[in-house]
Structures are given as C-alpha cells and as structure tokens.
Automatic annotation (TrEMBL):
This is adenosylhomocysteine nucleosidase. Keywords: Amino-acid biosynthesis, Hydrolase, Methionine biosynthesis. GO terms for biological process: L-methionine salvage from methylthioadenosine; L-methionine salvage from S-adenosylmethionine; nucleoside catabolic process. Residues 2-248 form the Nucleoside phosphorylase domain. NCBIfam families: MTA_SAH-Nsdase, PRK05584.1. It comes from Pandoraea nosoerga. Its EC number is 3.2.2.9. GO terms for molecular function: adenosylhomocysteine nucleosidase activity; methylthioadenosine nucleosidase activity. It holds the Pfam family PNP_UDP_1.
Amino acid sequence: MTLGIVAALHEEIADLLAEMAPGARVEHVGMRDYHVGRLHGQGCVIVLARVGKVAAAATATALIHRFGVEQIVFTGVAGGLAHGLNVGDVVVADSLVQHDMDASPLFPRHEIPLLGRAAFSADVALRDALAKAARDWLAQHMASEVRPEWLSALHLGAARVHVGQIASGDRFVSSAQEVARLREALPNALAVEMEGAAVAQVCHEYGVPFAVMRTLSDAADDTAHVDFPRFLRDVASHYSHGILRQFLSAR
C-alpha cells in the first residue's frame, strides 16, 4: 500500500525528505517534485503542495491519478482556534470544513455545492493511528529531538494531542477579530489552516482514505505573524518527522 505524505511548506517535510532521499526517485509533475521511495518499510510519495486550497487539491489529485496512492496524510502547522489549546499541541482532524465556502442563499453556508455536505470525515483508522503516534512521540521523544532552548523560548510546555474539527480557508488568520468570527461560525473547530479541507474533499470524491495532522504554531490571533516563522523554522519539521516516523514504524 502506497501512502501519500503532503505538506504546504518545505520545513514541514524537510527531515522526511532527507531520510527518504537515499534510493528515492523524483518525478516532476505540474510544477511539483514528487519524491517516490520507502520509509520504515512503507512505500511513500512525499510532496510539497504549496500553500492554499487549490494547490492542495491539485496535489492530492495527482497523487491519486499519477502515483496511485491508496492513502493520504497531510502534515504541517495550524493556528489554534479553541480555548485551552497551546502552542506545540497537536490536532488530528476528525472532520474538516472550508470556513470561507459560502454559496448562500443558494446553499447553506459552508456546504459544498452539489455535494450536500459541509464537513468531510477523516478515515477513522488513520486518524486514530496518527493520534496514537503523536501521543507516543510527545511522551517518549520530543524532549530529546527538539532542543530545550527552543521548547523554553517558545513556551511549549506540556504538549497534548487533540482530536476534532479543523477549518481551512484561503486566508492566513492573524487577528483576534477573525478568530472570534470563526469561533462563532464554527464552534467545534479546534484549529485553522489553509489546505486540509481541500484534500479532504478530493479524497472523499475519489474514495481515498485520508488524515490530517497539525501542530499548533500560534494562537491564530494578533501574535500569529510573530510566532509563526520561528516555530516553522525551529520546531515544525521535528514534529512532522518524529510523529510520522512513529506512525510508519507502527504500521
């Protein structure tokens, strides 16, 4: 079974690409490099989708059609929406919704026209396996793989894993006002990002199991533009690499 691993930014998959590089081949399709090889005994195709819903949907479609992947996992960072979540926590999606989809009054807000649904559910087995891998990595490996000064400087504290809804949209949410509006419109959403729901819709339409895992890099508020670059540079790749290594090793 071949697994597609996708991220929006290079830092989110840099360590995975480096680990798979020996023996891997690279195919250039649609302005993207698809790295085809094996990780921990598992056939994988790793690709940088770039940012946004269209980019993510195009990448997921190519993974399915061109490379025949049978499962897709999207990894990366997100901003926290729900109260009580902290930087460094991990959110594994149980469902995803496009917060900027609004074809009203023809269709209810957030509903995808002609599909009759707003939210797309992640594959239960993949979701649970990713959540377990995240918990195991945080408990057993994070302290040794993420440098202590980074943990302290970014105030990560005791990171936790949450399973719940993730909202996606073509906008970097960076103000308290935007967060408040999203909380009101989507009270069940734990985190916000820019790609996951698009991948979820493509996988739903093609019948491909998928999961989305996000590390909270900021609070998606007025501090988002300050916190995000540092977290991406110093921490995100360690999270993605460590958790997916744990996930693949357990399969």
